[in-house]
Each structure stands twice: as structure tokens, then as C-alpha cells.
Amino acid sequence: MYNAKYIIPGIIFFLALAFVPVVYNMGHQFEVTPELPKDQKDCVLPTQEMRDKHMQLLNEWRNEAVRDGNRIFVNAKGQKYVKSLTNTCMSCHPDKAKFCDRCHNTVGVAPYCWDCHNLTPDQKSPIPPVAQAAAGGH
Amino acid sequence: MAAFYSFLAVLALIVIPWLGVGMGMGALFGIVLPYIAIIIFMVGFTMRIVDWAKSPVPFCIPTTGGQQKSLPWIKNSPWDNPYDKKGVFMRMVLEVLCFRSLFRNTSVKLQQEGPKVGYSSEKSLWLFALIFHYCFLLILVRHLRFFMAPVPYPVHIAEFMDSILQIGLPVMYQSDVLILVGLGFLLARRVFDGKVRYISLMQDYFPLLLLLGIVVTGVWMRYVVKVDVIAVKELAMGIVTLHPHMPKAAIDPSVYAHLTLVCALFIYFPFSKLMHMGGVFLSPTRVVPNMSRRAMWVNPWNDPSIKPHSYAAYEDDFREKMIEAGLPVDKKA
């Protein structure tokens, strides 16, 4: 083999790159457990649908509530919910850090919900919308 | 026809896992195939490089795209016509990162006024090739979010920059759009330019369509069906932690189609033109410095038992016969 002093380190470097994830994850147990509410069984939509498409639903809610003033969501079972992340979603899933962030951080997603919904991770109760309106917010 | 067969092959690589998973063969496409693919890729890649490294380079054959270093008052171009290792290094860096030789592309056209040949600059191949390759790299880096836990900071940065326009939800990646533009151009060039079509074979169309298939299934998963990303990461993490297992939640069949196409790419890679990834570092026209006049290049094929034979020695061997035939000789007697 010619030029072995360049080619062998080159090949080793290239193959080592492929093993970066293997070494990086070595000894770690991969587990994702978002904390589910204990007193509630059903979400606004079936679980699998929420897992896959909750961002789409929240986006629609945001647009309909803010732009059209349409604040009532009716699901397939005919149950009515207020279209609100802070008051509806977070009344069952109160802790962002134990629910939202568990999955989002795992797959490196940084949703911009929290640019406006400025919740501290340990917030116990949802922000009442009335108080916000009185303070001049929306 | 070559394009059509390539298209059918890629279509089969989508349909087979799609149906296979429906018949309960998820573990085959999700676990067994990726391991086979990565082993074939690594072994095949290494063997191909070693095979090239074993081939001797009989001549000093650099591409000389600029003025050679000669007399001190003639300005030379050390990157286009390198005369030492430093120059070669710069040439390789620019070649690998900027595709400098594609930037030099020209097109030949007959002038309209008469039979006059005109050469004009042709940058489209360079531009779209560059777009495609950088998008592909960025997408590869972004995919590390499925293979590493916790997600490393550089991957977050790549993700943030790539979706900075915040269009739609899930947010659109600019690289997803640009890679389609790049691949679309590279394919259209082969299909619609008669001169390129004439020299295009199945091994040109297949990788392009395979990559397009990967991108399209990827876009489909993210923007249309919105697959369960946590389950996908569970599957991916099982593979890289060497404890493969199928995730608890069901995964959409399009994920398996995407994965199978990627595995097909890895398996096909060492046997294909895609080996230009490693081959660019072993191309003599790029990595050899142009010093054919200042350093002796010994052909590694040369048999060491054959000694140099000068003209003087040749004349000594044949002097009588040459004089007899009336040929001029340096030494008479």
C-alpha cells in the first residue's frame, strides 16, 4: 500500500466518526417518561393523535383564538374545551419541565410556545386570563 | 430507460418495506437491515480505499490549472499549480469545501453569426452541487438528534439555524427545500440536457433518485404524516446502544421506507460513484504536487533489477551496425 502514513489514519478517522454516537451513548439508559396526570384519563384527542400532532392542534388553536376570536374547541366526542395552552393543557399538565420538556429536549425540539407563554418551570397554578387582560396583556 | 429502471428500483425500495412492515416484519427493516447496511458500508468503504491505495501511480500527473513555479520573477499560482505539500493541502481544502474544479466549468456554444465557437462560464453545476452537498451534510448533522442522548449543543445550533425562518409547523427546514432544489437540478440536467443524457447510465440516475427518495420520504414523515418522533428515537437509540429493540408505540410505515432507502444508500455506496467521497483524497491529479521537473518521480512498478541504459551505452552496443546502416554516431571508432 502506498502513502499508508496518510491513508491509514484517514480511514481510522472516518470509521471513528461512525462510532461517535455509539461511544457517546455508552452506558446511558434511554428512557422518556413524561409525567402524565393522575386524575385524568382522556386528553382532548386520542393519545396517539396527541403524541403525533399536538403541535398542529396548538397551532390551529393559537390562530383561531387570536385571529378569529373562536375560543371553543369541540372534539370528536362532542366535548367542549377552551382553546388555551395555559388554562386547558396546563391545568392537567401543570409542569412544563416534567411534561413538555421531557420529550422536546430528548429530540432537540425547541418550540416557540414559550416565547409568549412565559411560564417558570415550577409554576403551580395557571395564569388567569382576566388578570393578564387587566395588566394590559392579551 | 436507465432513468426509468432506476425510478422503479427506488419505488420498490419504498413499497417493499411499506408492505413488509404491515406484515409484521418491522424488526427486519428496523433492526437487521441497518446493521447489515452499516457493516457493508464500513467494510466496503475501507476495502475500496485500500484497493486504490495499493494501485501505483506511475507518473506525476497533477492537473495544472495555473502558472507553474519556475523562475523567481514569474508569478506562480501555488494553489492551482502547487509545488509543495502546503500548496497541495490548500488545493485539497478548496476542492473539498468549495468544489473549485467545478467552478471552472465552461460551456461550448456555436455563435449565432457564423461558425465561430464560443466558450462561456457555466456555474450552474457548481452552484447546485454545492447546495446539495452542504444541505446533505447539514441534514446528516441534524439527524444526530435521533442518535445521541442528550442532544449535543452543536446539533441544537444546526437545528436552530436551519429552521430560523419559523415557517409552518413543524417548522420548515431550509435545507429540506434547498436539497430538493439541488437534487432536482442535478436530475433535470441529466434528463433534459442532450449531451449529458447521452453519457448518463443507470449508475448516474439511481443514486440521484435514491437520494430524492430519501428526501421525499423524510419530508413526508415530518410535514405530512407527522410520525411519532419519540418512538423513532427509541428505535434509533436501540441500534446505536447495541441493545436493539422495537419501540412500544407503533411507527408509521413511512419511517421504515425512509430507513430502508438510507440502508440501500449505505449498501450501494462502496460499489458506486458515490465513492468520490473518499476518492477525492486519492486522485493523483489533485493530490500530487507539480514538481515533475524538480524532483525525480520513480514509477513504483519499475523492476529494480533493470538498470538505467544511457544512449552512450546503447551506442556502444550497436556502433558497428549503426555505421553499417549509415546512421550518425557520436563516437566514431
TrEMBL record, chain A:
Membrane-spanning ranges: 6-24
Record flagged with keyword Transmembrane: yes
Top-rank lineage group of the source organism: Bacteria
InterPro entries to which the protein is assigned, alphabetical: DsrJ (IPR047668), Multihaem_cyt_sf (IPR036280)
Keywords: Membrane, Transmembrane, Transmembrane helix
Descriptive protein name: Uncharacterized protein
Automatic annotation (TrEMBL), chain B:
Transmembrane regions listed in the UniProt entry: 27-45, 125-144, 164-187, 208-225, 255-271
NarG-like domain sequence ranges: 94-277
GO biological process annotation, one example: anaerobic electron transport chain
Domain of life where this protein originates: Bacteria
GO cellular component: plasma membrane
Classification via Pfam families: Nitrate_red_gam (PF02665)
Gene Ontology MF term list: electron transfer activity; heme binding; nitrate reductase activity
Subcellular location(s) of the protein: Cell membrane
Stretches of the chain forming a coiled coil according to its record: none
Keywords in alphabetical order: Cell membrane, Electron transport, Membrane, Oxidoreductase, Transmembrane, Transmembrane helix, Transport
InterPro entries: DsrM, Heme-iron_electron_transfer, NarG-like_domain, NarG-like_sf
Topology of the protein relative to the lipid bilayer: Multi-pass membrane protein
Name assigned to this protein: Nitrate reductase gamma subunit
Organism: Solidesulfovibrio magneticus str. Maddingley MBC34
